[in-house]
Design a protein that fits this description.
Protein name: NAD(P)/FAD-dependent oxidoreductase
GO molecular function, one term: nucleotide binding
CATH topology of the largest domain: FAD/NAD(P)-binding domain
Structural class: alpha/beta
Largest sheet: 7 strands, mixed
InterPro entries: FAD/NAD-bd_sf, FAD/NAD-binding_dom, FAD/NAD-linked_Rdtase_dimer_sf, Pyr_nuc-diS_OxRdtase, Pyr_nucl-diS_OxRdtase_dimer
Cofactor: FAD
Family: Belongs to the class-I pyridine nucleotide-disulfide oxidoreductase family.
Bound molecules: flavin-adenine dinucleotide, nicotinamide-adenine-dinucleotide
Helix content: 25-40%
Amino acid sequence: MNKYDYDVLYIGAGHGTFDGAAPLAKQGVKVGVAEEDRIGGTCPNWGCNAKITLDAPVKLTREQENLKNILNGHTSIDWSKNMKHKHQVIDGLPKAIGGMLKSDDIDILHGHAALVDKHTVKIGDKTKTAKNIVISTGLRPHRLDVPGKQLAHDSKDFLNLSKLPKQIAIVGAGYVAMEFATIASVSGAQVTVLMHHGQALRRFYQPYVKKVMAEMKKQGVKFVPNANVAGFAKSGDHLVVKYGHSKQLNVDYILDASGRIPNVENIGLDKVGVKYDVRKGIAVDDHLRTSVSNIYASGDVIDSKEPKLTPTAVFESTYLMKLFSGQTKAPIDFPIIPTVVFTSPRIAEMGVPVAEAEKSDQYQVVHHDLTADWYRQVDQEPVADVSLVFNKHHQLVGATEVSDKADDAIDTLLPAAELKLNKQQIGRLVYLFPSIASDAWMNL
Ligand SMILES: Cc1cc2nc3c(=O)[nH]c(=O)nc-3n(C[C@H](O)[C@H](O)[C@H](O)COP(=O)(O)OP(=O)(O)OC[C@H]3O[C@@H](n4cnc5c(N)ncnc54)[C@H](O)[C@@H]3O)c2cc1C
Ligand SMILES: NC(=O)c1ccc[n+]([C@@H]2O[C@H](COP(=O)([O-])OP(=O)(O)OC[C@H]3O[C@@H](n4cnc5c(N)ncnc54)[C@H](O)[C@@H]3O)[C@@H](O)[C@H]2O)c1
């Protein structure tokens, strides 16, 4: 007879949970998953999958634009058909993910979950106990605290817009702002990006970010650096963004893309003694254990220097699966986690950042203008640059690319850096020709 209802009870059903929970349950571990919203969490429902589906015709439009001297005619994006397609692709995912969890005998508990004590969780009006608990509650959009803030929308609202507004103001210049500005402007909206600082995508290599911005400007996107947004108001049938020294911008829609904050409130952390920071998230050790020994945390809600991305959440939930099933006792050892911003062109990076490498004598940085490559000329890519970072043994340790194919190029280079391949090993790898992989590896 088990002392607890579950061996492991997860709070939240995003990637920080389900990629590990399903294989854990397959091994005979009794698992419960509490979720107050859609199964699958942010990424499938209002993040990666939804965004990349809307981006598909945007990417195609970019490719057509690059080849416009060859193609006849002009195409445009039908927003409502694109949104309908997004729903067709996305709407079935919670059922599919939930079905997968149930088929592994996982109990799905619907409702808001909060810790009652270190082994007890209240989910709606049900109370369940567990030997171990994993908090995987993710992030939610940060909202600017300015007058008229209720007039602004967040990324979730944007991804469900049935009609594309004509004029859009986007506050912030991070991942969401830059990706959604691209989607909206290529789809026909006039977009103004109100930047908090003088730089967009601050963690990325700035010479490449400037190239992305230049392409977005050609598409019609306006950037206002150091905008200092003061508030929003309604005036007749339009909205007004007040910024700078008494400047105003009239728009039909305001997207607040000023970042994301951890879901740490109202889940009983203080009651049970789990340490956290309201801005950074839940503190964990190198086994993803919180300050309470049987309570762990996974995914975006963790206070960590790892990027808050789906691959990170997947790696963490998979690590916890191995820990709970006795496959490992070792601390978590993060691999290189690559990242990409799905603008047109994309900017993608992995490993040691170029700006950091340029400041150190431990690395050598090699820049390549890829527009000179015959393979990139096939698609007439106007912007294509890569910077490769090598260590003293000439092993690849980092790379950043700006191009329409940057995501695929960085993915293909990743094993060289993660596995620290030497020249001889690299020489053993033969790629399809012609392909982005053979093109990317040519420079190693
Ligand atoms: C617009 C957007 C686009 C993105 N695009 C990408 C991308 O292209 N690539 C990429 O790698 N990453 C992307 N991300 C980031 C990615 O979505 C997250 O890193 C990932 O979803 C994190 O998973 P998670 O399980 O930690 O959190 P989430 O997926 O947010 O899951 C947390 C879950 O917990 C639930 N929950 C919270 N509190 C409670 C409670 N008290 N009781 C019960 N349930 C609760 C929530 O409802 C939610 O379902 C994007 C994010 C956004 C917002
Ligand atoms: N392609 C991807 O992988 C992808 C796409 C979207 C989101 N994400 C994930 O979601 C996270 C959140 O994305 P995001 O774009 O919301 O956040 P972000 O941290 O990338 O960008 C937030 C932006 O808001 C600005 N800002 C902060 N405070 C402000 C203020 N008071 N006024 C005006 N602007 C302000 C920042 O300067 C920054 O430009 C990302 O960090 C990433 O982890 C990933």
